[in-house]
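INFO worker-7 received task bundle
INFO bundle size: 2
INFO processing item 0
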Amino acid sequence: MPIDYPWTDTPAPGRAREIAPGVCWIRMPLPFALDHINLWLLEDGPGWAIVDTGVGLDDTRALWEQLLPDDLAGRPVTRVVVTHFHPDHMGNAGWLTARFGVDLWCTQPEWLIAQVAWRSREAGDAEARLGHYRRNGCDDDALEALRGRGNHYPRLVPALSPAFRALREGEPLVVGGRRWEVIVGRGHSPEHAALWCAEANVLISGDQILPKITTNVSVWPDQPSANPLRLYLGSLERFRAVAADALVLPSHNLPFRGVHERVGELKTHHAARLAETLDALTEPRTAADVVPFLFRRQLDAHQLAFALGEALAHLHFLEADGRAERLIGPDGLHRFQKA
């Protein structure tokens, strides 16, 4: 079925709107070019389960303080579920679980990588990250901008929950008597947990499937040889089991129907990006050289890190596919050329 948007407006920040029986939509601000995140409440017996939490900044917490007594109607928070470790999802999980004395639910790899991201704030950690960007072609100005960006994770995730309960693919999460099947996605993060409830005909897709923008799929300094795009495209096939007319609740943009159509669009998009990346290799180029071919606009340091990661993801896919090969020059730079 074609993509359809049942709503054209959004809830006011810090307010909840019921969009399916026992399912509420919240929207919170983000301090980035992508300026919002969608969060969800699931009716859970006497209270509410929270799915994703927003960044751990004062203005977002103030909105939670407004929402908790007003829109939860005095009903308790029963648990906090996080789709993945990124700060707009994990940011307030430690605060909310401590405040209400409830468990954090997420997949084990997401909890573990959150611990690593939160603790990677030493000078040696920064130099290792900059070494990754240097060998992939970033010049001195770009490196200085990336150095200034630093590790923003602890600022946006001020506290982590010290324990968690593991979500696992094939094991349902039962919330309010309903079975939510865990669909694991990879490529955007290590083990992203989307939640599919056939009874409600609702899919909480997190960042794995977005309706208007494409989720970031990047090679990061901690896994410099990874092939995340292959993982991401393979993960998309898992959503074929979701009903075609399911209501999809993404982390960004608007809720929609037409998940199979959107999966097809995402695969077509990445096929086109792979072709653009290959076309850019008219001579050996670093990932930094390829970025302007894929992102034809001025990028700040935050955007540059994501853009370079995406360029590398497409280059690594082409390398693994035998369509490009890597050359390591005497200057230590990694360049790619057509095979």
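INFO item 0 finished
INFO processing item 1
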Amino acid sequence: MKKATLLAFIFTFNLCIGQENLDNVNSKATETVINYLNGKNWVERSNYVTKHSNTLELMEERYQEMNFEPDLKDSTSSLYNLKKALQANSGTWMKVKGVNNIYRNKVTYFYGQNKTESSTTEYIVRNDNNKFLIDWEASLGLSEMTMASFDSRKKKEYVMMRVFMSIEENYLEKDALPDYFCVRINQEGDKFSVEALISRKSELGLQLLDKLLDGKWHKKIIYVRYIDLLSRKQNDYSKTKENLRLIGFLNSIEFDNWIIENDQAGKPIKVNLEDSNLKNDIKNFESYLKNKSLIDNAPLKLKTLNAAKFDYYQQQVTLYGYIDIDNYYNYTYYGTEATHYSFKLSDNAYDNAHIYFKKVNSKNLFDLVSREGKVPVKIVAINKDKQEGNIGYILLEGISFEILK
């Protein structure tokens, strides 16, 4: 047999074997799902699903005998349409990227007047030595507990959850925890998403951050817990406990799925959060919340001060805010670059005031702000400038300052 003929024969033989295996997957996976859908109660259905530690308990909880929950993807009202769609599309089982012997099929059926509405459900099927069983928990996106239950219990232990995850770019407190980035997570069927934090110090966290920057929602298996931190009530500053969701485990970064597989690439890895300066970060975060509350509830607001400059002429005032270096020298302070440092005080409402400190009294403040950027302060100052015409932000002469810790 010539070499070219032999190669063609080998290629054709391998193609036939591959097609035969694919046909076997399509036939047996579809048969498994249809048998599952024919189950009259959860016990019958359980014969066609993989058994994890608490699968049967979960099935019993979700399926109460004949009364399948109407919000489930495979509710009784959809059985006929689902089976019909499966039989019509039995050749659509595809191998799940990144895992072995696991296949998925997204089944869409149309209903309603003129069949203008559609419903799609996805089934995950495992092939174990030619025995096909549904990964029921991965198919429905089930977790150890619901997010509502997790939030109500304020769980301090890690809880496994299958979630949709996306990056949260506008998290208000992100600057207070620089070693963490914020994500939004929600479970299958949830109407609202919630926020959680992930350490950016770990290689795994950085890989995830890079993946989430596409702005899309990704399927992820996470392990999440609460940490306590001290905050303050806005009215009386009394200490009170608040909580922050913190993700410490992640499954495969490369692949988006809800499948737990022992030999899966990037299988769940624990991130030791305490080793990434968590306690110090929490302490800084508590300081941030305390200072934010002090600034928000300052006796004299910068907005009020700017709106009534003449009322505070030659008066000493106490202010709270974030101080930064500025380069504005005008009115009374025109030409004082040699004797005064120019600062700008701002608050959380984005109102501002110009503060001028004599250099002999504020060199350490200037150096601190130059090195670290904005810092929270308590300022005692006096308004020496009538600022005729009431133009621009008020100009104040600094008397003393206190860095807020």
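INFO item 1 finished
INFO post-check item 1: The radius of gyration is 31 Å.
INFO post-check item 1: The longest strand covers residues 218-232.
INFO worker-7 idle
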